[in-house]
Design brief:
- It holds the Pfam family BcrAD_BadFG.
- This is ATPase BadF/BadG/BcrA/BcrD type domain-containing protein.
- The protein has 254 residues and is an alpha/beta fold.
- Helix content is 37%, strand content 22%.
């Protein structure tokens, strides 16, 4: 007959083992002795360091200004009348909403953590957009992408559902018709895809590990007492940045 035994002190076994081991040692250390031993301990060299992203603030400013050249103009939704196009992105950790006018100006945009309940957040935003549009603006088409594509399409009757790689390529091609390589850093995965002859030719994804992805970076930053924005600034100007992808996400967040 097989039996399973659950000792009452099972949760404390590891601590008990430490105590029993301490009881067997013949060496006795006082406080000053422990401090002295710790002070003699050599610092372990951190491995997997990489070169700085930017060697100076001037170099960063040049980079920043170059990327700021590609922007989407905005337009006041309260004064616009006409047709509009709605885009939704239900990602693994965040949601995004964009409403464009006929000239591809942004009438409305929204970005937020999904907070574990993207449906209610999208519903809240759609109600707000409807209120802002009134009878002046007609949303003639809507498209959704992302992890929650099918759920949102069913929940809100969205016209079109497309895979996120196509959505990303469509946006990238709008700004750079000759784009041939795209990196998409999402909340839980990273996608790299090559473009050839106007189509996605190949895609490479990270495997099971989400090290370096958005959700990990946010959690890791909070564990160090930083917001994601402040953490990014620290990383940008770090003199010896660490290669986070070289370590397990679970252990780095623990």
């Amino acid at each position: 007959k097989e039996e399973a035994i659950f000792p009452e002190l099972a949760p404390y076994f590891v601590a008990l083992g430490s105590a029993y081991f301490a009881d067997t040692t013949e060496e006795i250390f006082d406080y000053d002795g422990v401090v002295n031993l710790l002070s003699q301990k050599k610092e372990k060299k951190v491995e997997h360091l990489v070169n700085p992203l930017f060697t100076s603030e001037e170099e960063f400013e040049t980079f920043f200004k170059r990327h700021q050249k590609v922007t989407v103009p905005t337009r006041d939704i309260t004064t616009y009348s006409g047709k509009a196009y709605l885009g939704l992105d239900s990602g693994s950790t965040t949601i995004k909403v964009v409403l464009l006018d006929e000239d591809e100006n942004i009438l409305y945009r929204y970005y937020s953590s999904s907070k574990g309940n993207p449906v209610s957040l999208f519903l809240e935003q759609l109600k707000k957009i409807r209120e802002l549009c009134g009878d002046r603006i007609e949303i003639v088409s809507s498209t959704v992408t992302g992890y929650g594509e099918e759920l949102m399409q069913v929940a809100f009757g969205v016209d079109i559902g497309i895979v996120e790689t196509i959505a990303h390529y469509t946006a990238a091609k709008h700004f750079n018709p000759d784009v041939d390589f795209i990196i998409d850093i999402g909340g839980q995965d990273i996608k790299c895809f090559h473009i050839k002859d106007g189509a996605i030719d190949s895609i490479v994804l990270n495997e099971a590990c989400s090290s370096g992805c958005g959700s990990f970076l946010e959690t890791f930053a909070k564990s160090l007492g930083y917001s994601t924005q402040d953490f990014a600034k620290k990383a940008i100007f770090s003199k010896s940045p660490a290669e986070l992808g070289s370590r397990c996400t679970v252990f780095m967040n623990s």
